[in-house]
Write a structure and sequence with these properties.
Radius of gyration: 18 Å
Keywords: Membrane, Transmembrane, Transmembrane helix
Distance between the termini: 43 Å
Strand content: under 5%
Largest sheet: none
C-alpha cells in the first residue's frame, strides 16, 4: 500500500477499533483547512460562483 510508512510505525500500538477511528477522522479533519482555503481564494478574488 502506498504511503504506509506511518502506519507501520504506529500499527503495533493501535487496536483495530482505534485504527478505524483514525482512518475516519483524519480525512475529515484534513477536509476543513482544504475547504476553507478553497473558499477564501474564491472570496478574495471575487470569483463567480453561479452557473451562468
Amino acid at each position: 500500500m502506498a504511503h504506509s510508512a506511518a502506519r507501520a510505525v504506529i500499527a503495533p500500538r493501535l487496536r483495530f477499533s482505534s485504527y478505524l477511528v483514525l482512518r475516519i477522522l483524519i480525512p475529515l479533519i484534513a477536509y476543513i483547512p482544504i475547504s476553507m482555503s478553497y473558499t477564501l481564494v474564491n472570496v478574495a478574488f471575487s470569483l463567480p460562483l453561479g452557473g451562468k
